[in-house]
Amino acid sequence: MKRARLSRIPPESTAAGSARPRIARTLPLLLLVWCAGGCGQNAAPAPPPQTVFVETVVQRDTPIYSEWVATLDGFVNAQIQPHVTGYVIKQTYVEGSPVREGDVLFEIDPRPFQAVLDQSKALLAQAEARLAKATLDVNRDTPLAAEHAISQAELDTVVSAKQVAEAQVLGGRANVEEAALNLGYTKVTSLVTGIAGIARVQVGNLVSPTAVLTTVSQVDPIKAYITVSEQEYTDFHRRFPTEASVAAQRKRMPLQLILADGTTYDRIGTISFADREVNPATGAIRIAGLFANPGNLLRPGEYGRVRLSAKTQPGALLVPQKAVTQLQGSYQVAVVGADDKISIRPVTVGDRVGRLWIVTGGLKAGERVVVEGQMKVKEGSPVKPVPAPAATSATPAGAGG
């Protein structure tokens, strides 16, 4: 009975069932042949490593520079005022030009003062004549009184007359000297060597000793005033508590002056003095620096910036500022490892020194940081590090601004 059922199975069913396994075995072979013939020709090759410019983290003792706005002022600003009252008849200097101590700047009409001098000399001559007569009288009457030829009262009278004449001569000489001084004061001279300012009076003006005719400023050396905070001033004097140590440290702290056009003045300045008090309104104190100014390039009233290194940080780690990326109040750098792969690392930064930044945490000396191209890399990506060109290297502020 079983054999009869099997014989009834249709022939086509048996053929189909045996064909399915053959197709299943053939399909992978066909796919393999197809892929070998060109299925991989459209796959993109792996990109080459990104080229980045790097610099090495350096470690050295680094002076910390600070800058303050500076106002220039003359070493001496002498207001030129007359000693006498009179009419200005001449201005003998060119405004804005250099003058020397003793140069005549203005002339006041001297005629009234010459007349007073002549009158004083005449009065002195009269007094000297009276003194001469009184002296003769005393010389004549003194032996007569000794011989009782004249009374003592008569002698006392001529002696008294001589004393009056002597006093009149002294007074006359004083009047002549005063008149001569006043006549000399009609030539108003400069009190210092410097630059004479614009005249505040004109020829023909009546001036008095209260009038300011002009101002002469001594500008070599010239002062540069800066204002530092009370905290900065106190911190400095805590580190140098004695006057001798302060004076010695000031000599070791050269000042650089950056002019309004951004250039650095070619002469080094020194700290001259600190003001006597802290401004209670601002909590700041004025410091005066001195700069040599032989060519009178610098003038009172100019503004600039004074750069000063008040302390040195030993063993500071330095990286270019452009290597540091700021993100939401935090800082990070892209570090190239020994395998030329990127490591994005958070860092802690300190003071800025010119184009460099002091890093106080997160880096070690000798590590390579990306200074150009860090926006194109990510954590773990391979790169081709190239030393940054010398033109892009950062230098400390004190080494070349």
Give a quick set of tags describing it.
15-stranded mixed sheet; alpha+beta; OB fold (Dihydrolipoamide Acetyltransferase, E2P); conserved putative lor/sdh protein from methanococcus maripaludis s2 fold; 401 residues; Elongation Factor Tu (Ef-tu), domain 3; 4-stranded antiparallel sheet; 4 domains
Describe the structure.
By secondary structure, this protein is an alpha+beta fold. It has 4 domains: 52-62 and 313-399, conserved putative lor/sdh protein from methanococcus maripaludis s2 fold (Beta Barrel), CATH 2.40.420.20; 66-73 and 219-311, Elongation Factor Tu (Ef-tu), domain 3, CATH 2.40.30; 82-109 and 186-212, OB fold (Dihydrolipoamide Acetyltransferase, E2P) (Beta Barrel); 111-185, Helix Hairpins, CATH 1.10.287. Helices cover 31% and strands 35% of the residues. It contains 6 helices and 19 strands. The chain has helices spanning 2-6, 11-39, 111-146, 152-185, 230-239, 243-251, and strands spanning 50-56, 58-80, 86-91, 98-99, 104-108, 187-189, 194-196, 206-207, 214-229, 256-258, 270-274, 284-291, 303-320, 325-327, 330-336, 342-353, 356-361, 368-372, 383-387. It has a 15-stranded mixed sheet that branches. Strand 16 and strand 17 (356-361) form a beta hairpin. The longest helix is centred in the N-terminal third of the chain and has 36 residues, at 111-146.
